[in-house]
Amino acid sequence: MKYFLSTVLLLFAITVTTAQAKKWTLQECVEYAVENNLTVEQFELDLENAQIDRSDAIGDFIPSLNANTSFSSNTGFSINPTNNLPTNSTQNNVSAGATTAVTLFDGLRNVHRLNRAKINAIANQYRLDDLKDDIRLTVANSYLQVLSNKEALKVAKAQYAATEQDLNRIKELVDAGVVPKGDLLDIQATAATQQQQIVNTEGNVLISKISLAQLLQIRDYENFDVSDDTFEIPISDILNNSPSTIFAKALEFRNDIKLSKSNIELAEKDLAISKGALMPTIGAFFNYNTRYSDVAQIPGPPVSEGGPPVFFTPTFKDQLWIFDGISYGVQMNIPIFNGFSVRNNIQRSEIAVEQRKLQFEQEKLDLENTINQAYVDVNTFFKSYEAAEKTLEARRLAYQYAKERFDAGLLNAFDFTQTQARVDNAEADVVRTKYDYIFRLKILEFYFGVPMTLD
């Protein structure tokens, strides 16, 4: 028993450690967010409803079939249902029947409703896929923000480590009386500022991880973390394509554009359905009915030749055959005047078609503007990153020169810390501009159909 408990505790500890040590990649985050997003689940239910609407539309072509039955009991004066004669007794009646009907023609509205249901199912699929695209972009942005903050934290800690070394060395020089105590105070102030920066950056890392975890519907914020890999500037040839080329490619596969096109087709089907109300409706029906009554009387053969007939009550089974009957026919309804409702519905549908067409053009215009902006952003942020790299290189050279002068006693501590602060700011700019560029690059690639990865 003791061995069993030890084994269980060990396995539990291994499981907890494994869960805590999990580092989420971008692809894992994107896939998990798409599978567990609440809005995605709602849109999936809308897609199921659209499939049911399609089944309803198919059912409009199939004849309906309904059966009915009833039982009644009357005491006192009533009419005998079998001979329509008055009676003053207790009678029990049973009736049953079946009816089938089919629409032969309704202005092709059933055809248009079926086609509309098919298009609506496709449109809901586009709507769902478009939502997943938005989720992928949002998750990628949040993921890169975590990476940017984590890399900024590494830089801040490395800067503080270097300052600590300078601080220890200055303490020794102050104790030896080589440099004034004011230089030590300046270095201590710089170290305190860097400690504060580390605390702020740690807070940024935590907040960004919580934001990403919330996008994934994960509530275990403490154990949630992303991969610690440091991503360099990815190699991409997306800028070899012009904005117009990227826009033309996006029009072919973007789900929001496909959804907008489907909305036009849906509006056109609604218009056809509205116009169908101007045409006659033709339907056919067939009914079968039978009944039974315990007071039913029918004439039988006379007792003697030439004598009056003898009335008797048939059995339940015999009455079902004796009193049954069928009816069938065709009916046509011709719309003549319905208070302008049909005409007004047609006009509303025509307006809806024009609105959907205008919305489609606006969607294309918005997409083109977004791609152009993303194209400009990629170039702008890449140039900003290159400038930040050059600035950092220059700041490091200036820092090294200042350090040599400071070590030789030719530069005071205040000026030296100012040089170091410029290096710190330059390193932070490099981290920020790098991830800004990576995200804009991924956006532009995404509109060109490249999957959202950091490879």
From TrEMBL:
Compartment(s) where it occurs, according to its Swiss-Prot or TrEMBL record: Cell outer membrane
SUPFAM superfamilies per record: Outer membrane efflux proteins (OEP) (SSF56954)
Top-level taxon: Bacteria
Keywords: Cell outer membrane, Membrane, Signal, Transmembrane, Transmembrane beta strand, Transport
Signal peptide: 1-21
Database matches in InterPro entries: OMP_efflux, TolC-like
Main location: membrane
Family: Belongs to the outer membrane factor (OMF) (TC 1.B.17) family.
UniProt name for this protein: TolC family protein
